[in-house]
Amino acid sequence: MTSICFYFQVHQPFRLKPYHFTEIGEQHFYEDYQKNKDILDKVATKCYLPTNQKMLELIRQHKGKFRISYSISGVALEQFEQFRPDVLASFKELADTGCVEFLSETHFHSLSYLFSKDEFHRQIMKHYWTVRRLLGVTPSVFRNTELIFNNELAKTVAEMGFKGMVAEGVDRILEGRTPNHVYNTPGNSEFGLLLKNYKLSDDIAFRFSNPAWEEHPLTVTKYASWLHSHAGEAEIINLFMDYETFGEHQWEDSGIFEFLQHLPEAIMSHPDFQFRTPSEILTAYPARDSYDAPYFTSWADTERDLSAWMENKMQQHAMHRVYGLEKEIKLINDPDLLNVWSRLQTSDHFYYMSTKYWSDGDVHKYFSPYESPYDAHIYYMNVLSDLEKTIQKSLPPCRISKRKAIKAKIRAKEIPVKMKSRNKLRISSGLTV
Amino acid sequence: MNQRPKILTLGWEFPPLYTGGLGPACYGLSKALSQHADLTIILPRLAPSFSMKNVQFIGLNRKTAARSQWKNKKQASFSSVEAVPSELQSSYPIHNQYNFKDTDDSFFTREESFQLFNEENIYGPSIMEKVAAYRQNVCSIAAHKSFDIIHAHDWITYPAAVQLKKITGKPLVVHVHSLETDRVHALSRNKVYEIEKKGMEAADYILPVSEYTKSNIIQHYRIKAEKIVAVYNGYDQEFQTANTRAKKNSATPTSKNVLFLGRITAQKGPEYLVETAKKLLAKKSDVTFYIAGTGDMQTHLEWLVQKEKLENKIIFTGFLDKAGVKKMLSMTDAYIMPSVSEPFGLSALEAAQYNIPCVLSKQSGAAEVMPHTLQSDYWDTDKMADYLYALLHYSGLSETLTEKTSAHLPHINWEISAKKVLDVYSSLLSTN
User: What does the alpha-carbon distance between residue B366 and residue B372 come to, in Å, rounded to a whole number?
Assistant: First the structure.
């Protein structure tokens, strides 16, 4: 049997408003409330509500044979809760069918793993409890922000009790091997890896409505025949994409919803094809090979590395500066301040600062709420400057010399930053959806 | 094109005699074009001992000193050029200040012509007489020349070009380095405007130096877009390798310098600089602004700076020679060009060569060819202050801007410009 594994990424960042230098030290509200609300409304109408409805119908129509998975970032969940409870309710309805798995990720859709393991743990746990609270399900498979992955990261995630994670199937690591079976990581045979089949995923996510593509228009029959051509050879085919593909990146008039409507039926018309969620696959299929990623990979851009967020000096400076605040923020231990700081870690902020294709204009530009990567950086750094001022004011009220001494002690790790120990963070594994 | 086209170029300024962007632009373009075409360049005044390969120069000031004298002279390079755009007082005049004589039917004797062309200022109050004398002389000289296309640079040569086209029937290309609507006011409709309009109407092709200028031609001169092709300027790349940033003065390591380099005229928007400075200085006091250049608005601007009590923070350097400009650039942290209307803006490219991050007016051609700059509407002083604050505080920003800009600079060169002009030439020659 070949199992088709659909995983959809749902994410909306809290975008920052144009925060001017004159506001530094004066005004401490950073987010663009109206823009965030407007974008969420737009995407809810064009994508989340109609697609969720369609998925629900398909699950009911196929009586549980159509199975899918999602990862919804914590900041997206928070925005649903704040602006669109109806969207949250429709995801809850999907969760209640038992045919839908929800994956774990960092709550703030952050790059925290690259800078702080403690923060990485904290955010995974925050997301874990948020998903349980809002959707009533327990994640057991992990996906990292933008499918950022390497061996070390897999080890850290495995130690937390997850049974596996999803990642990009990068050519330079696969070296001609198929992404269509379960892999494990070097030195850890128990921890499973599901690799994205980027060719078949991107046919839907990026090329579906491109008239210049030689396969355009993509029909259900054609696409199903491509999948069926792997019969006998592929154990699994992982189709990972942004959920916003449906109705937002590929507009309704491209026929994406009709495509979706008939796809499960067409796929299952072949007797050897079925749908499975990530944890079901990890239970059902053994790892066939080892996927060795000594360096970081991701699913972004053609480079599939970290360059979308860390290529230029603006991105690097901004990232180091925000993570440089971690110890002081955690020392102050004010939940509001912690939350403000955490939201500034969302990877989108750094993505907006990317100059990689700036002069050509492209996908980075499409997603950015700002006029240029430079504006994105400036507003972000202005916000950080204000946050730093607030932090300085909130540090324990003592003489400057004493405050300096405390900071020195933190640096020397004499005072532990207030964090739960890693053991406590370990999730109870074995719980499935 | 099977054979090299013969181009009759009508120019006004040419190095080493020039006052603004026109001279270097004509030089750079002609040099690149001369690889692919035979050029004859007629100028009102030609400096002695100046020559270029494949180019025949005719200086109306020295017409009697036979052409053979100019041949086989050492090729001139920019390194010998002493003038830079910012420094000239007698630059492109603001034409509303003169009461022009009607010179359409004037006739100039040989002596009168030569007297005009040998005046110290190649513009000046007698500019209209010079334009008319240029027209008359060009037409009589060109009658003996064989050429395929007329290529005229800026309005001062347009009357000659238009008349020559009438006489010879040869196709006409007019190059637009700046417009009266840039120099004076968007709504200016004076004698120069009329000359520009007539020239552009008569032309087969119009080559403005930016898309921005193209849009102005369409909007203010009512010319059809089909015959307008924007050809970006290149720049003098020799300038680039010559230098690196000087070390900052150690006495004031934290103090930052912002530079405005250009004529102090309404077109360059110096008032917006003062407004921006005021906003920035309210939050950050350790910044000094330098205004390098002179111009008709200087007195007004000095008064404005005094009124705002910013004399210690906004310094007028006055006239700077080439060495002075280099020194100034080497101690600058951020460059600002708040021009109200700037067809190209060569000085921004010069600043970029010194690895200085730039804040540019969106109303400029330079903003089009330099994507890795901070761009704002000239009137949006809040935004410009935001940009300057960020440039002076966030080193990641200025490093990214300068890195990306230096990687991009090689893509701005005269060979690319010449290629575009040659395409225009060949389309004209194939239709004729």
Answer: 11
CA distance A187 to A147: 21
- Asked if B78 has any chain A CB less than 8 Å from its own CB, the reply is no
Q: How far apart are CA B355 and CA B242, in angstroms?
A: 12
The secondary structure element, H or E, covering residue B317 is strand B314-318
Cβ of residue A312 closer than 8 Å to a chain B Cβ: yes
Whether the CB-CB separation of A108 and A345 falls below 8 Å is answered with: yes
Bridge-partner residues for A234, per DSSP? none
- Rounded distance, CA B120 to CA B97, Å? 19
Residues of B in contact with A313 (CB under 8 A): 395-397, 399-400, 403
Q: Does B412 touch chain A (CB under 8 A)?
A: no
Residue among B17, B19, B73 nearest B47 (CA): B17
Task: Identify the weakest region by mean pLDDT among A53-62, A361-370, B175-184.
Answer: A361-370
Question: pLDDT for B51-89, tens place per residue?
Answer: 888 899 988 887 634 343 344 333 333 333 333 333 333
A381 touches chain B (CB under 8 A): yes
Hey, which residues 278-307 in chain A have their CB within 8 Å of chain B? none
* Residues facing residue B24 across a β-bridge: none
- What is the residue whose two structure tokens read 């540090």? A395
Question: Within 13 Å of residue A135, how many CA atoms lie on the same side as its CB?
Answer: 32
pLDDT of residue B64: 39
**Sign of CA pseudo-dihedral B378, B382, B388, B390:** negative
State the amino acid at position A151 in one-letter form. N
Q: Hey, what's the torsion of the CAs at B57, B58, B60, B61, to 10 degrees? A: 50
Burial of A418 (0-12, 13-18, 19+ CB in 10 A): exposed
Among residues A162, A140, A250, which one has the least CA distance to residue A203? A250
pTM of the model: 0.86
Which residues of chain B neighbour A359 with C-beta distances below 8 Å? 371-372, 408
A23 is catalytic: no
ipTM here: 0.83
* Interchain pair A313, B372: CB under 8 A: no
In whole angstroms, give the CA distance from residue A290 to residue A37: 44
Beta strands A183-185 and A188-196 are antiparallel
Q: How far apart are CA B298 and CA B392, in angstroms?
A: 27
Gap between the Cα atoms of B280 and B273, Å rounded: 10
Q: What is the 3-state secondary structure (H, E, C) of A97-134?
A: CCCEEECECCCCCECHHHCCHHHHHHHHHHHHHHHHHH
Residues of B in contact with A317 (CB under 8 A): 394-396
Residue whose entry in the numeric block shows the structure tokens 């809760």:
A81
Report how far residue B118's alpha carbon sits from residue B64's, in angstroms, rounded to the nearest whole number. 13
